[in-house]
């Protein structure tokens, strides 16, 4: 293998025969930069020799997925320790992405974490940890066992930083006191003589410089060893220049016996202020993951279950699928399940954002962590542990907070080259002051050099995007909108067209009995009794709607005999000795029943989007029954809200044009695309995209999945199928169309917040560097300003947690 050639092995999933292997092999060989690709069907793996300067593993994975197969990868999250600024995050990310077997690595400075997608054949989690350690940082794998360890480490680190800050402040205060005494306008302030002594100042300053400041030297050494530069390099350079120049003057004062102007306070106060800023920043960053902590706090800790006929209280992690769980009034439902006994109202606001309690009865599903308001419930556990709705929500929010928005790439690129440029500007500033502005005045030139180095730290730039993504996605989760990644949160603000699936999205998705029209000579109660009794044996959704509607009117049903379902036509049965027909015009005409009097009413009901069934009793037309899929109460308001913010709303359905137009008219949708086959929905979305529209597709069924993937943003209704939610970029937990506007609103708010942060972070450095270079900023003031910039960016991002809809 040549020097610039690498070999990688991928585990392939989804191959069914040798032809599949052949297809993948051909596809991989066509990738630019691939020398040779070999796919083994028996071993289900691919060996690829390639030029890493031209292509990478990510491209191979994309190619295999494009061909309709999958690459077996592991996604792991690591807690990263020791990062001080965006340059650190950048360096770790680059190092991990160069690791053979890693297809994608993303490092989040605000969360202090790394998400690594790797090929387990090529690389292990231990290799990832070693790579991070080699770069001079620490890594802990986040799993069920280690997540608490990582959290404890963070807490301990904050406590350690607090101790360092107090120690540093105690030693720096006398130096600050001495500095204040130098100014003519503060001559009235008493300064102890000892504080003015160079050796006392050295004794106070040295521990701050080398014990407290050790972390900056270590960080700078590791960065430079890996041929990069970060905030530690700037701080170490600036404070060392001040300290060692003061040390030189201190030694000089012994031989000259004269008073000298020292700068020990500059280095000590700088280190103290930077530690203070970092502490504020760490605490503020902790608040930005508040949404996750809130969600985790919702989980019940124990559950009362019935095993072997005995009622017992067990820890939540001991509940298994099919356990019978008892939930008393006022308690949290511990797991997802189905009600076996009892009825109650459940407060689901913590999951769906819906404030009104939802009535539940036998057969209804319940979500873990919701609150049982008033009745005793016996439920069968259907999902436990990581499978519960809340656990899935927490996972999605964590992944969204850990992912990168495309806008962050700009900040990463800038911060990657920022430090070397700043060092260059600082050196140039020193030369200009020392040679031209104040020739030979070394202290003045040194002060400007230190001020430029310190004020230019790119911490704020690195925090600008991730903190906003964390706060924005967390707040969105609280209102029932789950963004699956930072890129989706960013892209959503561009949406100008929303395509809605009809059934289950605009409508409730379940038909209900709406109209009963009785012909002369028949009684409504009698008609409903015999039709309901006949339909009771049918499993058709329309039949179920009729039966439920009849039961709601408290009409008792009897058993039918000689029941016969006629596909495409209706049913035939005998009820209480009466011959019953329920179905289409064709069915009744086949039995020579005159239905001419029904046509006018039937046409009117059908034009309203209702499904009409004619009823024949003993060879006579008895009347008609209509069912319809009812519109969700909130649909009209939600669609009006979308139109008000300038978004075009289109409804797409497989239903006939007349039914679709009727539903569209009810909710205020002007454009309806009807009679679309399931596989045609994605094509319709593509047509809209070709017109230059940014399309969001909203659906809830399996048949919506291709369109959800094709759209710029796919939104799945949370009450829909798992397949739709898997395919979508955003899940709307509530099943309410108002969540679409909420999602767009939160995206716009978050992007505006990111832009504000990036503007201030860049403006701060752009304005701060010339001011410092011009000599208008003392080094300690530059340090304070630098600390304030990071904290202000984080606090601005935290405003997203208070956004009102």
Polypeptide structure, described:
- There is one protein chain.
- With 805 residues, the chain is an alpha+beta fold.
- It has 6 domains: 6-71, Alpha-Beta Plaits (2-Layer Sandwich), CATH 3.30.70; 74-143, Alpha-Beta Plaits; 153-290 and 404-469 and 752-802, no CATH class; 300-386, Distorted Sandwich (Calcium-transporting ATPase, cytoplasmic transduction domain A); 480-507 and 632-746, HAD superfamily/HAD-like (Rossmann fold, 3-Layer(aba) Sandwich), CATH 3.40.50; 510-630, Calcium-transporting ATPase, cytoplasmic domain N (3-Layer(aba) Sandwich).
- Helix content is 50%, strand content 21%.
- The chain has 29 helices and 30 strands.
- Strands 18-30-29-28-19-26-27 form a 7-stranded mixed β-sheet, with helices on both faces.
- Helix 27 links the parallel strand 29 (713-717) and strand 30.
- The longest helix is centred in the C-terminal third of the chain and has 36 residues, at 738-773.
- It is elongated and about 125 Å long.
- The mean pLDDT is 84.
Identify the notable features of this structure and list them briefly.
21% strand; 805 residues; copper ion binding; 29 helices; 6-stranded antiparallel beta sheet; alpha+beta; Alpha-Beta Plaits; 30 strands; 6 domains; 7-stranded mixed beta sheet; Copper-exporting P-type ATPase; EC 7.2.2.8
Q: What characteristic shape results from the CA principal axes? A: elongated
What number of structural domains do the residues give?
6
Separate helix tally? 29
- Overall pLDDT metric: 84
Model regions low in confidence, pLDDT < 50 over at least 5 residues: none
Beta fraction: 15-25%
Profile the largest sheet: 7 strands, mixed
How many β strands by DSSP? Answer: 30
Look at the helices and sheets and give the structural class: alpha+beta
How far apart, in Å, are the first and last alpha carbons? 60 Å
The helical percent reads 40-55%
Subcellular location: Cell membrane
GO cellular component, one term: plasma membrane
Function: Involved in copper export.
Catalytic activity: Cu(+)(in) + ATP + H2O = Cu(+)(out) + ADP + phosphate + H(+)
């Amino acid at each position: 293998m040549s020097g610039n050639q690498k070999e990688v092995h991928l585990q392939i999933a989804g191959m069914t025969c040798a032809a599949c292997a052949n297809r993948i092999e051909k596809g991989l060989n066509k990738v630019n930069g691939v020398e040779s690709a070999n796919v083994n069907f028996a071993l289900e793996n691919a060996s690829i020799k390639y030029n890493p300067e031209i292509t990478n593993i990510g491209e191979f994975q994309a190619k295999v997925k494009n061909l309709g197969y999958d690459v077996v990868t592991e996604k792991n999250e690591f807690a990263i320790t020791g990062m001080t600024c965006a340059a650190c995050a950048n360096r770790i990310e680059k190092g991990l992405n160069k690791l053979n077997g890693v297809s994608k690595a993303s490092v989040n400075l605000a969360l202090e974490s790394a998400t690594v997608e790797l090929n387990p054949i090529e690389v292990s989690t231990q290799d990832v940890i070693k790579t991070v350690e080699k770069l001079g940082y620490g890594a802990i794998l986040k799993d069920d066992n280690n997540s608490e360890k990582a959290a404890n480490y963070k807490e301990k680190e904050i406590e350690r930083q607090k101790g360092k800050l107090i120690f540093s402040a105690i030693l720096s205060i006398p130096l600050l006191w001495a500095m204040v005494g130098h100014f003519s306008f503060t001559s009235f302030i008493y300064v102890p003589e000892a504080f003015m002594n160079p050796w006392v100042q050295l004794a106070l300053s040295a521990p701050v410089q080398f014990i407290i400041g050790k972390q900056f030297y270590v960080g700078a050494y590791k960065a430079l060893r890996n041929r990069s530069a970060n905030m530690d390099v700037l701080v170490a350079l600036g404070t060392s220049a001040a300290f060692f120049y003061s040390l030189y003057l201190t030694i000089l004062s012994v031989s000259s016996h004269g008073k000298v102007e020292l700068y020990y306070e500059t280095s000590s106060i700088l280190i103290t202020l930077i530690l203070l800023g970092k502490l504020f920043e760490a605490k503020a960053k902790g608040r930005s993951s508040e949404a996750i902590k809130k969600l985790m706090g919702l989980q019940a800790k124990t559950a009362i279950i019935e095993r072997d006929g005995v009622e017992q209280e067990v820890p939540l992690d001991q509940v298994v699928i099919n356990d019978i769980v008892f939930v008393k009034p006022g308690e949290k439902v511990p797991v997802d399940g189905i009600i076996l006994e009892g009825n109650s109202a459940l407060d689901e606001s913590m999951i769906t954002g819906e404030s009104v309690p939802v009535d539940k009865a036998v057969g209804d599903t319940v979500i873990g962590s919701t609150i049982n308001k008033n009745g005793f419930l016996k439920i069968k556990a259907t999902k436990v542990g990581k499978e519960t709705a809340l656990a899935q929500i927490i996972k999605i929010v964590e992944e969204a907070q850990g992912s990168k928005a495309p806008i962050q790439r700009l900040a990463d690129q800038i911060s990657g080259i920022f430090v070397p440029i700043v060092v260059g500007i600082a050196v140039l500033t020193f030369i200009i002051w020392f040679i031209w502005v104040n020739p030979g005045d070394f202290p003045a030139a040194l002060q400007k050099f230190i001020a430029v180095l310190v004020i230019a730290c790119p911490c704020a730039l690195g925090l600008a995007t991730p903190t906003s993504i964390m706060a924005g996605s967390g707040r969105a989760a609280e209102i029932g909108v789950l963004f699956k990644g930072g890129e989706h949160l960013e892209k959503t603000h561009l949406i100008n067209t929303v395509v809605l699936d009809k059934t289950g999205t605009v409508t409730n998705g379940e038909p209900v009995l709406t109209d009963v029209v009785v012909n002369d000579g028949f009684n409504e109660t009698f008609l409903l009794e015999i039709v309901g009794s006949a339909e009771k044996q049918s499993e058709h959704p329309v039949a179920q709607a009729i039966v439920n509607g009849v039961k709601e009117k408290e009409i008792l049903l009897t058993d039918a005999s000689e029941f016969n379902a006629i596909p495409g036509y209706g049913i035939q049965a005998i009820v209480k000795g009466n011959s019953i027909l329920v179905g289409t015009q064709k069915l009744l005409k086949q039995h020579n029943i005159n239905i001419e009097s029904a046509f006018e009413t039937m046409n009117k009901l059908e034009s309203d989007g209702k499904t009409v069934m004619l009823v024949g009793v003993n060879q006579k037309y008895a009347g008609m029954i209509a069912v319809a899929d009812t519109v969700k109460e909130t649909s009209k308001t939600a669609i009006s809200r979308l139109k008000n913010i300038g978004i075009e709303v289109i409804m797409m359905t497989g239903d006939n044009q007349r039914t679709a137009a009727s539903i569209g008219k009810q909710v205020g949708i002007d454009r309806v695309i009807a009679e679309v086959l399931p596989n045609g929905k994605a094509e319709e979305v593509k047509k809209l995209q070709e017109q230059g529209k940014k399309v969001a597709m909203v659906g809830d069924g399996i048949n919506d999945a291709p369109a959800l993937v094709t759209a710029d943003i796919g939104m799945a209704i949370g009450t829909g199928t798992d397949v739709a939610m898997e395919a979508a970029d955003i899940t709307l937990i509530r099943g309410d169309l108002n969540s679409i506007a909420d999602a767009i609103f939160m995206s716009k708010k978050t992007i505006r917040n990111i832009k504000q942060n990036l503007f201030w972070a860049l403006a701060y450095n752009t304005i701060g560097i010339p001011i410092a270079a011009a000599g208008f900023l003392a080094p300690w003031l530059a340090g304070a300003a630098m600390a304030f910039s990071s904290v202000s960016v984080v606090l601005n991002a935290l405003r997203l947690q208070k956004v009102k809809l």
